Amino acid sequence: MNTQKYDVILVGVGEAGSTLANKLSQAGLKVLGIEYGQHFQDHRNDFVENEAGVLNLSWKNTNYIIEGDGFLGIPNLGANVGGGSLVWTAMAFRYFERDFQLKSKYGNRPGLSLADWPLTYQDLESYYTISEKHMGVACTIAPWDHAKRPEYPNPAHCYYPSSKMLEQGMNKLGIRSSAGPAAINSQPYQNREVCVNCGYCRSGCRVDSKYQADKVMLPAALNSGNFELKTESVVVKILTSSNGKKAKGVVYIDKKTKKTHQATAKVVVVCNNPMETVRLLFNSADKNHPNGLGNKYDQLGRYFFAHPTIFGVGVTKQETSVVAGYNMGNIVSLDFTETRDSKKYIGGFTFVSLNGSGAGVVAVDAFHNLYGQSLKEAMYKFPKSLAMIAFCEGMPTANNRVTVIPNKLDAFGVPIGKINYRLTDNDHLLTKKAVENMRQILIASGAVETYIREDSFETHPMGGMRMGKNPKTSMTDSFGKVHSLDNLFVAGGSLFPSGSSLGPTLTIHALALRTSDYIIDNFSKFS
Asked: pLDDT (tens digit, 9 = 90+) per residue, 288-297?
């Protein structure tokens, strides 16, 4: 087995991995990126304007045994170079200051495992600004924005007819609204085109008006001469030093040739999705880490959560143009993101509009109780409809956890994952409130019929590698370094101690920039 040597190995080259590759390689470090999926270099011809196109770009949730009602295996994670940025709907929210201080704000709550982040909004503020410039976020200053935040890189998109109707409806109810922060070009930016409103954002943007990490972040890495990309390869084990204090490299399998390879590095960063990050650390157990890497205090995989999500449609008496436009957040309301009644529940929910392709999603979600002729009749009404989603703030618990099943192996000979995720009472209360308010908004906006799927589905899986200051209650520090290993880092949503009700991608990007700076500034310690 040949062994290749690098300064840094990135396991996964999705949104976080592409960001790290960009920064580290341009700083002069020799970087190897190992990616499970393909590298689509010709978006215009590789992607399709077809709603089903998302299935070819999404992570397949087949290597997991599922227990509980919180995880349905919705295809909302990426599976190729660029990761989730190929399939995301491009909502680039900053978290609120309060989102980093859940434990301080609400203390201990029955059935929940709350924790503060080991950093603050101020620690990420400059990285948020850089991230928005990378993504070309289009928006206008909203009522909820931080008072000192700078202008967005691009002006907000114009409201669609459906958004104007929702705005009027929310105004009637005294609910504030604004354009959502869309990482989709409203004007030419970074040599990328303006959005053509085709509506197929989730199937990969063929004209690259949507921010996609492989298009925006990776070219500089590839052109630096310091970055090597291995695609269609799967890392099956992280190797550690004889004393177990350092990660020294990885073992990976080329899916095409079936050959096993080994690479060593001074720093290893795991940038996989939360389930696969945890699974890899469990499957890298050795004599010094018998229960999984860094798992001395049995924290690996715990505090797994997502955004319980509600989907709704309101049928009106007029054409709404809902079938055209970029998919999500032409108009949003963040008025419900803050806790309304802390005696009953904590957390909130975010309302975002939906447009563009999505008839299939409407059929299986909003119209999920309709069949045959009833479903056909409802689908005929969709062009006269308004559509919304509510992302609810899922709460972490210690028992909602990702682990592995040692005696069940995948195609590469490593144990598959097990996801135990049960919605909390708090989650159920929040989703109930979201349904009530969504129905009121749709009716106030002109809906004469409403179809809302009241049982939630998960979006944005997070947690499992909780960051924190105490190794006994967390897995990594604020830079994503695993507590008990000197040079093993994690990037991505698995780090999040809590998840707000806002999309996590901008925060994932900002954290990856911060971790990159830390590795660059301290690289002599890892040599």
From this structure: 999 999 999 9
